[in-house]
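Recall from the previous lesson that a structure prediction takes nothing but the amino acid sequence as input. Here we apply that procedure to Potassium transporter from Ambrosia artemisiifolia. The sequence below is the only information supplied.
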Amino acid sequence: MDLEPGFHHNHLKKQSWTTVLTLAYQSLGVVYGDLSTSPLYVFKSTFAEDIQHSETNEEIFGALSFIFWTLTLVPLLKYVFIVLKADDNGEGGTFALYSLLCRHARVGSLPSCQLADEELSSYKHETTNLALTSFGSRLKSMLEKYRVLQRFLLVLALVGACMVIGDGVLTPALSVFSAVSGVELAMAKEHHKCKIPSSEAMFADLGHFSQLSIQIAFTSFVYPSLILAYMGQAAYLSQHHAIKNDYQIGFYISVPKTLRVPVLLIAILAAVVGSQAIITGTFSIIKQCSSLGCFPRVKIVHTNSKFHGQIYIPEINWILMTLCLAVTIGFRDTKRMGNASGLAVITVMLVTTCLMSLIIVLCWHQSVFLAIGFVVFFGMIEALYFSASLIKFLEGAWVPIALSLIFMLVMYVWHYGTLKKYEFDVQNKVSVDWLLGLGPTLGIVRVRGIGLVHTELVSGIPAIFSHFVTNLPAFHQVLIFLCVKSVPVPHVRHEERFLVGRIGTREYRVYRCIVRYGYRDVHKDDVEFEKDLVCSIAEFIKKQKDGCIPDGNGKMGNDEEVMRVVGTHEEIRTNYEDGPEADEIKPVKKRVRFVVPESPEMDGDSRAELRDLMEAREAGVAYILGHSYVKAKQGSSYEFLRRNSRPSTDTLTVPHASTLEFLYEERMTLLYYI
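The prediction returns the following tokens.
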């Protein structure tokens, strides 16, 4: 299951034990599907190469000791008791750690960040009351000052994200290949080696469950079960030395023959569930990267209307399918697939260890020695597995590296191009003074209706608007500059989503509305979005006094605009035109009639302004979209990605009948070929 929007870790603490235990039970298949199947091959792969099973059983007990301490130190100690506490308002994964660092050190990758974003309740989520240490202060200053360190931090997060995507290609291929190969292949020598599966999954899937439920599931069921399974295998092998083939040293040889087929089917089912989980996780990673400006825009389909995290991305699904088929056909054995998957998993673990060291200093405000101890202790353990995986570079481990380089190139090129385009838009924006100089009529005829001008700028007037004024003989009586942007938090509470301001005086009827979404939030449909947008502006008008916003309630923009956070929980009264019920919000799409409330505290100017807004809403809403085409250098990778990605306005599910589109060419030269 998934959580409703805005339902993060702080709320999970208030859940009943029944809900927590239910989540713990559900996490067994999603989080631990791959880890639970590890006893099938670990002992067998350990003795598949050079290690021999002697009569003294030293090798058996040595392997058991190695397995025990690995499970105890990495999944149990590192992830369950340490890493899970570094959640981003209930969300986990590599980008959740990166998001935390961006907010605490102000090194965000989003160019449209504002000071007002730091006032979000989820943005200010603190995990400690300790003051930042002197080294932490110097480290924070260095990260904020030097762009090269910011880029290194971004690249580190991208490496982890790309390796997760690579695992999303390899794990399904490995599971499907094992499923169709039968019992004989499941016990063959060519099985995968040296993998630590799914320890990272318990952190990456944190947003789907809760910290407490995952801790309960692992400590009370998964960890004891795995230890008992390995101990049982070791006990059996220590008493049975007369094994014909060394590849039979594994799980199935210790299972009675009558139960081997049912156990195999259960194992295949667990592997398939684990594969589905990693595919879903890949979709989530892509969505997070796209929201933070690090991946080309793709179509995101929400498969469940109640739970926000259940998404499907058709383009990525086709790419994963193609790559999975290519890996399966190219390798044709699970040994090389396992080598590749093992390198992907252990690389993500190393990235998590590095980012966690920064979290300890910058977010938890702990001593630098504690961070160094964390890196040295867990980094040395994971470095052993990493070096063992690199030895198998020519035997399949090159695949995740190649896939990661391709995805990293795509991500970095798109991020670089997006930043340059935004910088160009900022440099060429029109001053607010120019707009105000046109007068309240903007120099053209104002007709009934609301005109929504979509822009990526959070201040100033987009250059394309001057083309609107020049080429259109008339414009709407209410003009709204709409900016829909992402902020580096997983969720934005509904009452904090809209940041509303006025451009000019009341007579202009020109507003700016910035709609903020977290990287895990769902964008509403056009009917609900229009209703919330109009209600937020109406609340902004109602709460003003003498045309001004009281000090302390707003944030000043670059063009001397005062922006105010307006919640729509105090909505003005609404009536449905084709329904007998009044003041009731139904889950069906119906046109809404807004009624101006009678309030003795509202002055005449505010009442007139509110009435104009309601009349304009009744007349209809027109979406004015300006498509800007960036002329990059010939042969540029960004140009190719831009042409094959969705436009920035694709997140707005606007009706085509209410859309007015302009084409606008921007001549921008990128600094170098990318």
